[in-house]
Amino acid sequence: MRSSNPLSKIKAENAKISFSYIPVAVFVGGTSGIGRGIAEAFARHTKGNAHIIIVGRNRAAAESIIASFPQPTSPTAKHEFIECDVSLLKNVRQVTSEILNKHAKLNFLVLSAGALDLNRTRLTEDGIDPVTALSYHSRWKLIYDLAPALEKARNDNEDAKVLSVLSAGNGGKIDLADLELKKASTMTWIQSVMTYNDIMMDGFALHYPSVSFIHSYPGGVRTPLGLNSPSLFMRTWAFLANYTPLSYLLMPPENCGEYQLYGIHYTASTPGAWRIGQHGNDIGKQGYHGDDESRDALWKHTMEVTGSK
C-alpha cells in the first residue's frame, strides 16, 4: 500500500534519527543515483556523525560526495571510499575482508550497484552476465560475508539492517530447473532477478533472524544508470530519462534517498524480511513469487556459485 506521508513529513521524521553510538554504514553503489541519494540522506540526518563507507568504481565521484557530507563533531566518525568493481566475486571477497578487518560491527548495508545491459552473452570471469552479477550474486555475497558483523551489532543492541534496491513486487515465478537463467527469455530473466532479491532476503532472515533484510522498489528515479551502457537502447533510454521532459516524471535521487532512509529506519522496525515501496512504505507480499522450496533451492545454488561455505 502506498504511503500517504508527504515528502516534508518524511524529511521531518528523518531529522529525528539519532544514535547513542557511531553507526557504521556501507553503501555499495553509492557514487551515483539512488545509492548516492541514500548515502547523502544518511550523512545529512546523522550530521556526519557516522562511519560511512562508499564502495564503487568512481573515486572522483565518491570523493566529491564525501566532501559534501556534514563535518562530524565526533572524533571517531569517518567517511571513506573503497574502490571496487563488485561485478566480480573475487573483488567482493577482497572488499568484505577489508571492511571486516576494520570493523567488528556493521549497522547498515545498502546495496544499489547495478547495470542496464540486455546483452546476456557478455559474461564476467565468474561466468555470470553483469546485470545478474551486480543485481544478485555480488549482493548475496556481500551480505553473506558481512553477516557476522551485522549480528555482532545486533547482539550489542544496535541497529543491523540490509537494504537491496531493485524492484520488490515486480518479479515473476522462477524456474528451479534453470536457476542460472540460461534458458530464460529476456523478460523472464529480468523478473527472475527481481524475485531472487525477494527470496535472498527470506533466506538471510532465516539464517540470521536478529537482522532486518529489506528489498526495495524505489519506483522511477532520475539516475545516470545506463548512460554508459554498451546497448544503444539503454543509452537512449537513460538520455531521455535524464535530459528531456521525461525526467520530470521521475523522482529526483535526493527525494528517493529520503524515502528509502525512512523505510530503513522506520518501516523495517523489527528483524526479519521486509519489502518496501517507493515511499519507504511496507508493501507486504504484494507481487511476491517465493516459497520455502525456492528459497532453499536458490540458497544452495548461490552458495555453490559464490564459493561460500
Would you kindly provide a written description of the structure presented here, covering whatever features stand out?
The chain is α/β, with parallel strands linked by helices and 309 residues long. It has one domain: Rossmann fold (3-Layer(aba) Sandwich). The protein is 44% helix and 12% strand. It contains nine helices and seven strands. The protein has helices spanning 7-14, 33-45, 59-68, 89-102, 130-155, 186-207, 232-243, 253-267, 292-306; strands spanning 24-28, 51-56, 78-83, 108-111, 161-165, 212-216, 272-276. A seven-stranded parallel sheet has the order 3-2-1-4-5-6-7, with helices on both faces. Helix 1 (7-14) crosses helix 8, helix 2 (33-45) packs across helix 8 and helix 6 (186-207) packs across helix 9 (292-306). The mean pLDDT is 92.
Short summary of the structure?
With 309 residues, the protein is an alpha/beta fold.
Strand order of the largest sheet: 3-2-1-4-5-6-7
Kindly report the name of the CATH homologous superfamily: NAD(P)-binding Rossmann-like Domain
Radius of gyration over alpha carbons? 18 Å
CATH structural fold name = Rossmann fold
**Total discrete domains:** 1
Mean pLDDT: 92
Q: Which stretches are low in confidence, meaning pLDDT under 50 for 5 or more residues running?
A: none
Report the total helices: 9
Structural class: alpha/beta
What's the overall geometry? globular
What is the CATH C level class, in words? Answer: Alpha Beta
Outline the biggest β-sheet: 7 strands, parallel
- Cα distance, first to last residue? 38 Å
Keywords: Oxidoreductase
GO molecular function: oxidoreductase activity
Protein name: NAD(P)-binding protein
InterPro entries: NAD(P)-bd_dom_sf (IPR036291), SDR_fam (IPR002347), Sec_Metab_Biosynth_Oxidored (IPR052228)
